[in-house]
């Protein structure tokens, strides 16, 4: 009632909300206007090309074209540091063997490399399958989309794993392989789904504060016009007493034209209520408070609440704890 989940039974006649079809939701609350949508799509396409590019030496001199891309806000010192890291990688036989062994995508979690006092993770992309090669002829590769989205979100102040560089080799417009370099955040951060076990034991304002902060973080991501179906799988939590920071990562499945409208946003919100954990009405309300306030979309609240309750009922292991 009034966009808030009340304490009470969630079955039978006592149900406060009912499931609605997605097209009803679209009609009820609407979506961003065409001008606003086009503007955000333009911003994200522009982010794909707003980077500094340098021709660098490849693993095999004279074979293929190797390009190093760095964020457009990097200074000379940072650019030189990325170039130096690439020089170490390309002359490391064990590393080149790892690159050759990858069939599609792989993050080298066990071998973070140092750069300016920071630990760097390397994600390897290979383009061997015909479908992956053809995909790059129509829109940017998954490696390029991931790098560009991270840079774009960094420039907007959204919490992400900082992108440091993208190294790509190919023949003409078709890439053969790419390496994405990101900062390895390993101090004081916890995987979101693992952190939920700690949330289960929280009470009072700290628990409420967590769900409100989570809603705000997701709202900031969607305000930037970025949507991905697996955001809940690619999120790190940084607890700081009663405050919580969040870092999004891995945007391989992002496409600039796929905007977070009400239907997609509702699906994304429901995924953060992970099976196997208990949620109170207060948890859901604070989560939606943070999200809707950040997005400036209070009129979407009723529809999101319908979708969340429907998801909690539908998924086995998901349920609300009602006092």
Explain briefly what this protein structure is.
The chain is an alpha+beta fold and 323 residues long. Helix content is 43%, strand content 20%.
What features would you describe in this structure?
The chain is of the alpha+beta class. The chain is 43% helix and 20% strand. It has 11 helices and 12 strands. It has helices at 22-29, 34-49, 76-90, 93-101, 130-138, 142-155, 192-199, 204-223, 262-271, 281-295, 301-314; strands at 51-55, 65-71, 105-107, 113-115, 118-126, 163-171, 174-183, 190-191, 235-240, 243-248, 278-279, 319-320. The strands form 3 sheets. Strands 1, 2, 3, 4, 5, 6 and 7 form a 7-stranded antiparallel beta sheet that branches. It has a 3-stranded antiparallel beta sheet with strand order 8-9-10. Strands 11-12 form a two-stranded parallel sheet. A hairpin with a 2-residue loop joins strand 4 (113-115) and strand 5 (118-126). It is elongated and about 65 Å long. The two termini are 18 Å apart. 34% of the residues are buried. The model is unreliable at 7-35 (pLDDT under 50).
